[in-house]
Amino acid sequence: MKSLMENVVAMKGGDGETSYARVSLYTQLRMIQVIKPILESEISQYLTPDTLKGENGVFRIADFGCATGINTLLAADTIVRAVQTTCTCHSVRLPEFQVYLVDLPSNDFNSLLRSLPPHEQLAAHKNDEAERGFTEPPSTRSYFAAAVCGSFYKRLFPPKSLHFCHSSSSLHWLSQVPDSVVDRTSPAWNGGAIYISRDEVGAAYLCQFRKDFCAFLAARAEEMVPGGCMFICLAGRSSADIKEQSAIGHISHHMQDAFEELIKQGKLEKEKMESFNLPVFCPNVEELESIVKMENSFEIVEGVKLFGGLPLYPISEVRKGDEKMFRRMVTNIYRAAFENVVRTHLGSDVLTHEFFLTIEKVATAKCQDYVHNRNDQLGAFLLRK
């Protein structure tokens, strides 16, 4: 899986029922609503007049791990509007805006670019959020948009070319499953489980996350202007116990149940489960802060924030008797995030379909256990030193 990771770690494209664009309307939109006022406030406080001017009258923004859907457009619109408001407060002439939408080559950029609203010059652009509501896509955009393909764990832009960076619901994805986790001779070998099952496995995952996140910070430090700002939000955990991986941990249990059921039915060999591990890690506040301080290119403003105990919307809305609706929700959410990874590993569309059908059946049988699961997210506003 290691060599193919950049080609398979992508949210499901298109606009169908199981596409990320459709599912994220429910799963990610609530989080965007939570962080929007924080993002606006910190932009107004920490972007200086020199940074606001941009370079040659252009303020450049990059959204790393943009995926597809309305959430991407809402994030870009929120950032641009907040910078515009801050420019007005500082009596800085409004720059033009360039937004780079960054993701892996396997992302569905065609759908994303088709969803962009028409561009209008700043003079003609109006703030219509009160009329349309925040959850509706903007009717126009006051920025130029461009897609950029590549891993955000590497350099993607020229030096000192970005003024603001943003990443939401992406940095918990690792560049690879840790080598020691799939090495049968290693104490961290994870045979018999598909995610963090023991402390040794957790330590290997943390080591890989530290390596990846340091690479992300180092690349952005090269690309950003001094005084530039970055806001990140990713899946995290509230517990000091590295095995308690919040929502991702719950998901891994459901997926492992599906593997074991298919093995029991004789449809899958045990080796297929033993060689599969989710390439995701949820850090806690202390782990994330220590990595930022160790890498030393950025200052954390007001500390890393934990948004803990969030309901897994819309699953949390399910009531007894709604098992059919719940079944649909589970398969749609899981397919949107993990179908590409599972299909690549199983090497069969038929088996992949069976895998997610099995998740549906297992989930329905345990419906009332699922709805009590909670989600933790971490957020941090960083200043380039």
Quick summary:
The chain has 385 residues and is α/β, with parallel strands linked by helices. Helix content is 44%, strand content 17%.
Q: Would you give an account of this structure?
A:
- It is built from 14 helices and 7 strands.
- The longest helix is centred in the middle third of the chain and has 25 residues, at 199-223.
- The protein has a 7-stranded mixed beta sheet, sandwiched between helices.
- Helix content is 44%, strand content 17%.
- Helix 8 links the parallel strand 4 (162-168) and strand 5.
- It has 385 residues and is of the alpha/beta class.
List the keywords.
single chain, 385 residues, alpha/beta, 7-stranded mixed beta sheet, globular
**Overall mean confidence score, pLDDT:** 86
Low-confidence runs (pLDDT<50, min 5 residues)? none
- N→C terminal distance: 36 Å
The total of beta strands comes to 7
User: How many H/I helical runs?
Assistant: 14
SSE string, helices as H and strands as E = HHHHEHEHHEEHEHHHEHHHE
Say what oligomer this is: single chain
Instruction: State the strand order across the main sheet.
Output: 3-2-1-4-5-7-6
SSE layout and pairing:
Layout: H1 5-8, H2 20-27, H3 29-46, H4 49-52, E1 58-64, H5 70-89, E2 96-103, H6 109-114, H7 129-132, E3 144-149, E4 162-168, H8 199-223, E5 224-235, H9 246-264, H10 270-274, H11 285-295, E6 298-311, H12 323-346, H13 349-365, H14 367-370, E7 374-384
Parallel strand pairs: 1-2, 1-4, 2-3, 4-5
Antiparallel strand pairs: 5-7, 6-7
